[in-house]
Design brief:
10% strand; alpha/beta; 3 domains; 54% helix; disordered N terminus
Length: 373
């Protein structure tokens, strides 16, 4: 009973799942195999990164023990997938909610909405006054979408959490994820609900006032309207370096929820296809079409392409950013970098100089100009 389907080992057991999961994977064996391969690659990568971090911890320390546990978890998950995971789709589906009577216990399944590509279900057990919210995690402020996930349903998150934590029959405890060590009191879970609710409303209010994303970041920072985050247990447990970028990520995703990000139109493209997509975005912008162009998103795509040594594609993306955001010092700095990497010293210098003109504090541009000249 989950959104992931079941392994072939459970073929004789009825599987209950949300209809979105069945609709996504039914008759799509190739996509399932590709996704399993990606998951194996991801867990192996996480295992290797953790192994590289392990020598930096004091042997026998709590940090070293936790790191080794995480290594074991990553390895186990990859091993299980490699051993021949076979997807079995739900035989019993639901859309909004469903109740399962197990005799001594009742499971109330409530569709939480999209917190990922397929969404998730909250399980409420009235007899135990317990809710299981797999997508809440003790290290995160809110349900944590991976960067490629889209179509979040924040109003649905708020509605379900309000029902679970503040409704007629509120639970006493919330089990986060599937690890019994992550058991929260209702009071702690409500601090996360308050955060999500306040951020959702604050972003909408700031946007309605005509503020752009950088202005919203500043207004809703941990030094301004959201200073209360520093009093949350998740902040005390994980620290500023972990929570601050999360808060910015949630702010950005809440801001983008009802928009059509142009960056989604170019992901995965190369060569002529990439150039055609960039031209289409320019045309949509000129005509006032339903498109949102985010400087930082295109900069990230450009640097990803640069890291893959796809110089021509990276140059096209950075040039697009320069054309769209001609008053940004950062886009000229990035464009200058790809020019330098391609051997075009003249244009690299020209763009570093333009970046420095727009932002005299850009020390990187100063250093690069000195090196190039």
């Amino acid at each position: 009973m989950d959104r992931f389907g079941g392994n072939a080992a459970f073929r004789d057991i009825p599987i209950v799942g949300h209809i979105a999961f069945r609709d996504k994977y039914e008759g799509r064996e190739a996509e399932v195999r590709a996704e399993i391969a990606q998951l194996i690659e991801m867990w192996r990568w996480k295992e290797n990164v953790a192994r590289e971090r392990l020598p930096g911890h004091e042997p026998g320390s709590e940090q070293a023990i936790r790191e080794q546990e995480w290594i074991n978890t990553c390895k186990r998950r990859a091993d299980e997938l490699e051993s021949g995971f076979s997807l079995v789709l739900p035989s019993d589906t639901y859309e909004d909610r469903k109740t399962l009577d197990l005799g001594d216990l009742t499971l109330d399944l409530v569709w939480f909405g999209r917190a990922g590509e397929d969404g998730i279900t909250v399980i409420k057990i009235p007899e135990l006054r317990l809710a299981i919210v797999p997508v809440l995690h003790p290290h995160h402020l809110a349900p944590h979408p991976m960067p490629e996930f889209r179509g979040l349903d924040v109003p649905r998150w708020i509605m379900v959490l309000e029902e679970v934590l503040e409704g007629d029959r509120p639970v006493d405890n919330v089990l986060c994820g599937i690890n019994t060590a992550d058991l929260w009191s209702r009071e702690r879970a409500r601090t996360h609900l308050d955060y999500i609710r306040k951020l959702w409303n604050a972003v909408a209010t700031a946007e309605a006032a005509g503020k752009d994303l950088p202005e919203i970041y500043e207004q809703l920072s941990l030094e301004n309207e959201f200073a209360f985050v520093k009093e949350m247990q998740v902040y005390k447990d994980n620290g500023d370096d972990w929570i601050r970028p999360q808060h910015q990520m949630h702010t950005r995703l809440f801001f983008l929820q009802h928009k059509n990000p142009a960056s989604e139109m170019v992901k995965g493209l190369a060569g002529d296809s990439l150039s055609a997509a960039l031209a289409k975005i320019r045309k949509l912008k000129d005509k006032g079409g339903d498109i949102y162009i985010e400087e930082s998103a295109f900069n990230s795509i450009g640097y990803y392409l640069l890291s893959q040594e796809r110089i021509t594609d990276a140059k096209a993306v950075f040039k697009f950013n320069v054309d769209i955001f001609p008053r940004s010092a950062n886009v000229y700095d990035s464009y200058a970098e790809v020019m330098a990497r391609s051997g075009d010293t003249v244009n690299a210098i020209r763009n570093y100089e333009k970046s420095l003109e727009l932002n005299p504090e850009n020390q990187n541009a100063r250093d690069m100009l000195e090196a190039l000249k």
